[in-house]
Amino acid sequence: MPPTSSTVNLSRRAAVLIAPFAGGALASAIAFLLLRDSFPDRVPTHFSLDGTPDRFSSSAVALGQYMLVFAIEAIGTLAAGWSAKSALTSLRSLCVFACGLATATAYLFSAGMWTTSGSEDSLMTFSLIQLPLAIVVGAAAWYLSRSRA
Question: Are 52 and 64 within 8 A, CB to CB?
Fold first, then answer.
């Protein structure tokens, strides 16, 4: 049975909304592969408000957690896309939102991996400037996506 117009439309909608998260996950995985040889045995996976790590995992578990975050963000965006009333307007808005969110997340993960590389557990701190920088990077991606939509 050939796919119907609504099935194709739903598939296209899902692909458009998932693409930014797939790209962010790929960029984070590449950064991980480039930096993993300089990671300590325990990689910080969560930082407190003052920038010191408070949860650690092996590097393989950390990568899995990073990919899980992208999957959760993609699922949340898909759910918002399917529940939206105005299909065309919401697709553009959600795609722009997805680009900003995926870019900010990939930036934060990459900055965290950069902080971790070559450090000892006791010397690691995550600069508090990284969160505002991630917001700026995400906002720039949001703006660029918005201007193209």
Answer: no
Residue type, 45: T
Task: Look up tokens 């898909």; give the residue.
Answer: 78
Percent of the chain with pLDDT over 70: 79
CA distances from 9 to 13, 20, 73, 88, 115 (A): 6, 18, 21, 11, 42
- Predicted TM-score of the model (pTM): 0.77
So what's the pLDDT on residue 96?
A: 83
Residue 67 · residue 23 · CB < 8 Å: no
Amino acid identity, position 106: A
Which pLDDT score, from 0 to 100, does residue 86 have?
A: 56
CA 133 – CA 111 distance, rounded (Å): 10
Considering only the C-alpha atoms of the chain, give the largest distance between any 2 of them, rounded to a whole number of Å: 61
Apex 135 CA angle, 130 and 141, nearest 5 = 125
Angstrom distance (rounded) from CA 67 to CA 133: 21
C-alpha–C-alpha distance, residues 96 and 87, integer Å? 14
C-alpha–C-alpha distance, residues 62 and 109, integer Å: 10
pLDDT in tens, 84-136: 665 555 777 788 888 888 988 898 888 878 877 766 654 556 666 766 777 78
